[in-house]
Write a sequence for this structure.
């Protein structure tokens, strides 16, 4: 990740470690990274939770998952598990219901075909008061991000999560090209 700084000290590009710290993902937390992609968030979360906890990288691409596992092991991160799954289907993550403290959904909403199902699956795997760290592109940024028609606005994402039984916790800094926030699963 590019760590270019602007005068305010904020990173221009998304910094997974800083976002995880801002979201208060802590030692001992069980974390799922939905749509893990490159594994940047998976590995940053694995460092944050420490060796006594696990981070589950869930993605539909098997090749990416083996790459994430290889990179994690090369970095000495033995607490990363990979799961081939569909996070847009009920039970598709293959994670047990109510088992996670945090779900990370970074740069996934814009490409999700069934955004409601993705949010529902995150709700399903979270513990009673678990939290979701949600980050996505704020615009197309002249082609740097997704096509403008795929961009999901932050207020739309808030509504998606609120409609699925979450409550807003806080916004987090996510660089110049993204928005980010934390939602907590409502106690039922």
């Amino acid at each position: 990740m590019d760590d270019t700084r602007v005068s305010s000290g904020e990173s221009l590009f998304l910094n997974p470690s800083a976002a995880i710290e801002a979201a208060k993902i802590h030692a001992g937390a069980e974390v799922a990274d939905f749509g893990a992609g490159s594994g940047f968030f998976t590995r940053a979360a694995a460092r944050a939770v420490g060796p006594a906890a696990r981070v589950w990288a869930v993605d539909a691409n098997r090749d990416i998952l083996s790459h994430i596992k290889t990179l994690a092991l090369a970095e000495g991160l033995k607490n990363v598990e990979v799961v081939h799954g569909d996070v847009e289907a009920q039970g598709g993550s293959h994670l047990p219901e109510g088992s996670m403290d945090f779900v990370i959904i970074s740069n996934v909403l814009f490409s999700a075909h069934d955004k409601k199902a993705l949010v529902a699956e995150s709700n399903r795997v979270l513990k009673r008061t678990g939290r979701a760290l949600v980050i996505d592109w704020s615009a197309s940024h002249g082609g740097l991000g997704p096509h403008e028609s795929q961009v999901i606005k932050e207020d739309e994402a808030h509504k998606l999560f609120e409609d699925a039984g979450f409550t807003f916790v806080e916004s987090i800094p996510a660089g110049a090209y993204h928005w980010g926030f934390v939602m907590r699963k409502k106690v039922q």
